[in-house]
Amino acid sequence: MHRKGFIFDLDGVIVDTAKYHFLAWKNLAKNLGFDFTEAQNEQLKGVSRADSLQKILNWGNTSVSEAKFQELMTLKNTEYLGYIDKMDDSEILVDVPRVLDFLKANNQGISLGSASKNARKILEKVHLLPKFDAIVDGNDVSKAKPDPEVFLIAAKAVNCKPEDCIVFEDSVAGVEAANLANMISIGIGSKDVLHEADYIFKDFSEISEAFITELINK
Ligand code: BG6
Ligand code: MG
What does the alpha-carbon distance between residue 178 and residue 198 come to, in Å, rounded to a whole number? Predict the structure, then answer.
């Protein structure tokens, strides 16, 4: 049996935290005097916290000082963490534990490759932290997706070459990062959005053990 590296994005792949990012960003925009829509929130998937704030300020035709920018990021994150604090196992997306357990039973490398600086906290809240051999998140990278840095570090952390890695991603930027890293990209979500991925599934319930075995033996 071969040993591959399976790298999971967090937000939108393991848990649906986009709704909490939305609530916190919407509140921030409201306090600055403009609206923030769900369609705009969609465009922030996979985008780092700082880049998200910059986009939101641009949409609101607003600019702030560097000090205010830092203050707004802290404010947003404090509200976001309030929602995260209430999370539990019921928020794990369908069949994620089944796939993680199957990979573990087959001695595969399991890494997290997320843009979030809150990744460890979220995995702790939903009790999935022990399932990962390595966690690579927003605290470990200097370049945001679509730069492949996060996935290259995640591959190294489980002693796998990039071409022996498979990435699960829900964002366009993340799929692009996986492709640039020379890894197999698996889009989780809509075929219309994630068409650059090597494979696309609605969610993990569509991912069979036979398919995973095929990836392992590739
Ligand atoms: C990504 C999310 O996973 O993490 C983005 O898709 C988010 O919406 C980014 O902005 C950074 O997250 P955090 O938790 O560090 O603010
Ligand atoms: Mg994501």
Answer: 10
CA distance linking residue 144 with residue 173, whole number of Å: 9
State pLDDT tens for residues 144-189.
Answer: 999 999 999 999 999 999 999 999 999 999 999 999 999 999 999 9
46 CB near ligand 1 (under 6 Å): yes
Report the atom number in ligand 1 closest to the C-alpha of 12.
6
Give the residues across from 201 on adjacent strands.
188
In a 3-state reduction of DSSP, which class is residue 196?
Answer: coil
Instruction: Please state the atom number of ligand 1 nearest to the C-alpha of residue 52.
Output: 10
Cα 80 vs. chain centroid, distance in angstroms? Answer: 16
Greatest pairwise CA separation for the chain in angstroms: 58
C-alpha–C-alpha distance, residues 83 and 118, integer Å: 12
Q: What pTM, to 2 d.p., does this model score?
A: 0.96
Q: Is the CB of 178 under 6 A from ligand 1?
A: no
Our answer to whether residue 9 is catalytic in this structure is yes
**203, 27 contact by CB (below 8 A):** no
Compute the distance between CA of residue 169 and CA of residue 39 in angstroms, rounded to an integer.
19
Residue with structure tokens 């995995």? 123
Instruction: Write out the DSSP string of 100-140.
Output: HHHHHHTT-EEEEE-S-TTHHHHHHHTT-GGG-SEEE-TTT
Q: Which ligand is nearest to the CA of 9?
A: 2
